[in-house]
Each structure stands twice: as structure tokens, then as C-alpha cells.
Amino acid sequence: MHCPFCRYADSRVTDSRTSEDGSAIRRRRQCPECGKRFTTSETASLTVIKRSGVTEPFSREKIVSGVGKACQGRPVSDADLAVLAQQVEEIIRSSGAAQVEAHEIGLAILEPLRALDEVAFMRFASVYQGWESLEDFEAAISVLRASSDIQSEGSKG
User: Fold this and answer.
1) pLDDT tens, residue by residue, 98-125
2) Nearest CA among 61, 8, 47 for reference residue 31
3) Which of 29, 34, 56, 118 has its CA 20 to 30 A from that of 102?
4) Who's near 141: CB < 8 A, 6+ residues apart?
């Protein structure tokens, strides 16, 4: 790490701390040449491979924007969307891969969105999974009902 003051090619780490959300490490450094201190922030990069083959950095904002469209008119707050985007990022990062296909991000969105709002889930899934008929919607509703029945039976016991 070059010193931003004197451009010396090395520095010594004096303190390291994890950010509040755990996505970055903040390091205090000191230059052995000029003695000045500075802070760096380190994050693990996560790259998304789009269908076209183009790569771009992972963006929580894109998740919030895309899912936000499915949540229009639903009782879902901006804070709820931010939490969902964080959950999706955690799911993706837990795979340990530095690159992930856009399709995998869509799949990672489905379960947290279903838990947040079933109507928004149906909207998102219908576009994301390319549903073409009423049968596709009926099949998804049947799965939702079955899982709701299982959950309500489990809470009675």
C-alpha cells in the first residue's frame, strides 16, 4: 500500500476493524518513511456475469430497484428492501465465489422476497421465471399455500 502523502511503497497496519455490516475491513496505517497515518477500507469484490457475458460489480442498489418494482403498492418499506438486498448479498457471498451469474442472484432473491411479501414474490417470480400461462401462476400459488399450511401447523404444535 503506497503512502498517499509521500508515495513510499510500503506502510504498516496499526489497527484493523470490521465495518458494522461486516462487508469491509477498516485499517489504520502508518508510513515508515514520513510517519503520517492514513485509513484504508478493504472489501472483497463480487462480480456479476450478465447473460450477455458482460461483467459488472455486484450492486445492492440494483436489487432494491428491481425488487422495488415488484413491491409497488405493497406494504414494503425502503428499509425492508435494504434488508432484503443485504440478505441476498450474504447468500451470494456465502458461496465463496468471486464471480456469480446474474441468474443466481435472481434465484437468491426469491426466498427472502417470498418471506417479505407473497404478492411481490409472485410478481417478481412471474417475470423472472418467465411464466406464460395461468397454470404457471396456479402452480406457484399451490406451492405457497402448501408451505403456509405446513408453517401454520408447525406453529400450533
Assistant:
1) 899 998 999 999 999 999 999 999 999 9
2) 8
3) 118
4) 122
Q: 70-80: b or e for each residue (b if 16 or more CB lie within 10 Å)?
A: bbeeeebeeeb
User: How far apart are the C-alpha atoms of 53 and 130, rounded to whole Å?
Assistant: 20
Residue with cell 455486484: 58
Residues 47-93: tens digit of each pLDDT: 999 989 999 999 999 999 999 999 999 999 999 999 999 999 989 98
- Cα 80 vs. chain centroid, distance in angstroms? 13
Among candidate residues 116, 144, 110, 112, the one with its CA nearest the CA of residue 129: 110
